[in-house]
Amino acid sequence: MKRLGVKRRRPQGAFPSNELVTARYNVLSFVPVNLYQQFKRVANMYFLALICLQAIPGLSPVPWWGTLFPLAVVLTVNGVKEAFDDYWRHVSDAQVNRRLATLLREDGDVAIHWNTVQVGDLLRLHDGEDIPADMVLLASSDPEGLCYVETANLDGETNLKVKNCHLATASYDCAGATGTP
């Protein structure tokens, strides 16, 4: 059995976290960011400019609130749709971040959440498992030190890509490996 001596001493904040965030908004930023995104559309800006012109007395025979109502309906419907979509992005992010990875430690393997994986952690992967972060392949159960990785969720290709272990660590025994994080 070989012991991998990796120290986990690094400054806080030196590397980004492994937390997946695809959601666009939070509770405080939803209204301003969503309105900004919606007013980037030319049609919405046109109707806002039209409302401003109609608000000038004597310039328009049509009251300004007559144009404001349809614009408000469009903004509200789009806002509700965006809020619904973003809610499901938050749910999906939480599901991915709560998935478990196996961290190697001297006292045995420990299950940790994907969002807590840090740079320098030694992880054990089994056949068919998803990879929780960018990784360097140190050892493989394959006698030639090969690993086959499917990257369909990254680039859409369904072909398996061959990855080689680093020459310095390819001979390590995967089954009995322990780590010193």
From TrEMBL:
Keyword Metal-binding: no
Domain P-type ATPase A stretches: 98-161
UniProt keyword terms in alphabetical order: Hydrolase, Membrane, Transmembrane, Transmembrane helix
Entry EC no(s): 3.6.3.1
Molecular function terms from GO: ATPase-coupled intramembrane lipid transporter activity; hydrolase activity
Any single GO CC term annotated in Swiss-Prot or TrEMBL for this entry: plasma membrane
Transmembrane domains' residue ranges: 45-66
Listed name of the protein: Phospholipid-translocating ATPase
Provenance organism: Monoraphidium neglectum
Lineage of origin: Eukaryota, Viridiplantae, Chlorophyta, core chlorophytes, Chlorophyceae
